[in-house]
User: Fold this.
Amino acid sequence: MLREEHDLDDLERRVAILQRQISELQQSADPPNGVLFPASRLQVTASQPVSALARSALRGSSLILSGEMLATVLNFGTQILLVRFLTKSDFGAFGFALSIVLLLRGIALFGVPDTVGRFVPIFHERGDHRSVIGALAVSLILVLGLGVLLASTLMAVIGVTGSDLIADETPRRLAVILAFLIPFEALLELLTAAFAAFGASRAIFVRGSLLTPGLRLVLVVLLYIIGGSVIDFAIGYVVVSLISAVAGMLLFARLIRANVDTSSISLRTVTYPTKHLLTFAAPTAASAVIWLLLESMDTILLGHFKGSAAVADYRAVLPAAKLGTIVMFSFGRLYTSAASRAYACGATSELTDLYWRMATWVAVLTFPFLAIALGLAQPLVEIVFGARYRDSATILSILVVGYFIHGALGFNGATLRVYHKLKFSVLTDVGAAVANIALSLVLIPAYGATGAAIATTSTLAGHNLVKQIGLWRLTGVPPVPVRFVSCYLAIMGGSLAIFALTITAQHMALVAAGIALAIIAVSCIGLRSLEFEATFPELPLPQTFRWRERPRLRR
Assistant:
């Protein structure tokens, strides 16, 4: 079945290339303003370079990044207050129970959000509103059905096994309460994908970046004022998710009324593309579950072997270690569509430029997180989380390296899916999951939370290295182009210099000065290589970051 889908997409790609060549021949005689493809209402100019698409993707990603930054600030504030409000054992118990719930939520999603993000825009662009409604209906039923089933199963298993599965009573009670999150959070993820399919960025911002994070912050403040317990917080957490789900459904209904003509659609005339959705969702779901395993199994195994205190040491700094990933996720929302357009046109060189340009942007923008975590982890952890989390500084430094590598090497997994290399992607993800569990079983009993951090970082680095090799061999996207090598060399040099200062310097002021110089150097080299002024001509570039090239003499 996957083979048939691949052959169909390959045929459509060849047709698009022929259309592009025909339009180029037409332009050589009488260049038109644009060419309207028969199979789409999208107007595409044949002579438009993909670099223009990359510029558009980068500019749009900056808008999404602003919303993600707001949500991150609110979530991080909630995390800090929660760490200070709860006891260490209660915070670890909550993190343990939440990890189980988030793992099951990922299974309930079954890759449906990515599937909606691909098929719904295609159906809507063709004017096939019956298939739009059918695809959304199938997706809602599948996600909610799996969510309710998994939540019920978790409650039943805990009720039957009791202390045999989870020894401590507090994590056990929290897991039962937070089980209600599984269908609610899965629904929210699906609604976000639907908003993105219709280009409703305002709905994504209001629901995802403002409403849910803001309500969670208010919840922690209220519990601090009234002196609530961790059980009260878990109940409030579920209520916040329910409120967000109701608000999301209201926004979704408004979005459907504005974009889909439902006047002539009934239950009998709706087209349900179940086969197409499940065919694409299955391998996507496998990759999503693998990532959830990578992020959740370390915490679960840590709680099993070392208890709630070790989980607290690990979970306290995990959001801080993942701060840089918001840049990658923000850029990734628009990367896939731009890469798909380049692939459909057969523009391999332009896709390579798009891939490494966005990867380098991610690396440059996330380097400050890496530099600060490497050089100032100890004082920052003690200031933010308190002296009792002093041992988490090393964990933060190790984790941030892994997540930086994951982002700096680019969207290799998404590009492999664009090229329909689903088998390689799934096998690579399965191998990464097995390696992560094996490393965790070896390192966690011996080194506790630090071992969990080493297992995660090693898995992230190895996983991305294998995918990068596969990307080069299977798609033709080469390693780092020469024009971006200087950025990566500067990042490597700056990281090594900061690490050396951390070991040898006797004063934190010297380390801070080294971090500032490294960030400035990487920014100068990066902005020059990435042609910042050409991408954002309306934004003035400070003189510090300008690089004046010497005029070249003509022979």
Remarks:
- The chain has two domains: 67-275, 307-548.
- The mean pLDDT is 80.
- The beta strands are 35-36, 43-44.
